[in-house]
């Protein structure tokens, strides 16, 4: 029994090595196994766990200048990646086929194509940027904004790194262009908001915060639909990638949808109830005061 399990594990490990994409096989963090990425995620969890405890009896850091620079850097980086991913996909010919929604994945010969390598390179930058984005959480910890470190926030930041390790190791091309470019486009808007929100005089003018969440929900919906049509039209892309992305997008829609409902819809309902109470009180008070004042004048 134990020998059989060991043999199966060994075969599975050999299979994972054989199916790795030759373009990224020897790249930093992508060579051999996911242990380094797992250790990075575990270190992230440790900081999320211990960080607030470390800051408990300390004053929060301001970090305004750093936040402005950091967020604008991510705006520029996200804009660059959006353009480079879409343009590289265009050069490869993803949009000029009979089915522009199906970007066929090339495995064995892709490393010989400079256009395919160009896309793989920018997707690798995208993968590494997910480690950089851990800084979002660290800034919350240092500023003692613990209420912002939600399950959704931690899950999204940690899981996307693991998802993209799998993508970059086994399928750094083809249909992968869609989810990455959409996410980069959303991040242009999101980090621009964060950069402006770091300036106190700008905060009252930022009326479009809730639309960022709507934009994110739209992103997840489009990626999910794009992935599902890929499966139904038998697009030449690894099935494991389609299954993984489908499940991941569903989890994102559920979590972000729940966040949106709690943050905006319920808040509006509570506000409407309060306004209704104030309105009814205003009417009753208005009538009584009107009569009293009227009689007073007559007297």
TrEMBL record:
Residues 277-299 are annotated as: Disordered. It catalyses: a very-long-chain acyl-CoA + malonyl-CoA + H(+) = a very-long-chain 3-oxoacyl-CoA + CO2 + CoA. It is an enzyme of class 2 (transferase). Its EC number is 2.3.1.199. GO terms for molecular function: fatty acid elongase activity. Keywords: Fatty acid biosynthesis, Fatty acid metabolism, Lipid biosynthesis, Lipid metabolism, Membrane, Transferase, Transmembrane, Transmembrane helix. The keyword Transferase applies. It is a multi-pass membrane protein. The chain crosses the membrane at residues 33-49, 69-90, 123-142, 154-171, 177-199, 211-231, 243-261. GO terms for biological process: fatty acid elongation, monounsaturated fatty acid; fatty acid elongation, polyunsaturated fatty acid; fatty acid elongation, saturated fatty acid; sphingolipid biosynthetic process; very long-chain fatty acid biosynthetic process. GO terms for cellular component: endoplasmic reticulum membrane. InterPro entries: ELO_fam (IPR002076). It is found in: Membrane. Belongs to the ELO family. PANTHER family: ELONGATION OF VERY LONG CHAIN FATTY ACIDS PROTEIN, FATTY ACID ACYL TRANSFERASE-RELATED. This is Elongation of very long chain fatty acids protein.
């Amino acid at each position: 029994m134990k020998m059989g399990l060991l043999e199966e594990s060994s075969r599975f490990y050999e299979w994972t090595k054989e199916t790795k994409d030759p373009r990224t096989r020897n790249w930093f963090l992508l060579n051999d196994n996911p242990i380094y990425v797992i250790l990075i995620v575990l270190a992230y969890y440790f900081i999320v766990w211990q960080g607030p405890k470390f800051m408990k009896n300390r004053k929060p850091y301001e970090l305004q200048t750093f936040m402005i620079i950091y967020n604008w850097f991510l705006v520029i980086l996200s804009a660059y990646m959006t353009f480079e991913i879409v343009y590289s996909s265009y050069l490869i010919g993803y949009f000029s086929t009979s089915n522009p929604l199906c970007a066929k994945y090339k495995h064995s010969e892709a490393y010989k194509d400079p256009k395919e390598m160009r896309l793989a390179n920018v997707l690798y930058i995208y993968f590494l940027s997910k480690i950089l984005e851990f800084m979002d959480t660290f800034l919350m910890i240092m500023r003692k904004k613990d209420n912002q470190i939600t399950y959704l926030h931690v899950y999204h930041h940690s899981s996307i790194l693991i998802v993209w390790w799998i993508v970059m190791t086994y399928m750094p091309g083809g249909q992968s262009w869609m989810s990455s470019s959409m996410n980069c486009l959303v991040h242009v808007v999101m980090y621009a908001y964060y950069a402006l929100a770091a300036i106190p005089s700008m905060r009252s003018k930022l009326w479009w915060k809730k639309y960022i969440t709507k934009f994110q929900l739209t992103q997840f919906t489009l990626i999910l639909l794009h992935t599902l049509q890929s499966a139904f039209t038998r697009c030449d892309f690894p099935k494991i990638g389609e299954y993984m992305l489908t499940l991941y997008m569903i989890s994102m829609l559920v979590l972000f949808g729940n966040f949106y409902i709690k943050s905006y819809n319920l808040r509006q309902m509570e506000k409407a109830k309060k306004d209704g109470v104030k309105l009814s009180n205003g009417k009753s008070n208005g009538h009584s005061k009107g009569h009293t004042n009227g009689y007073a004048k007559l007297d």
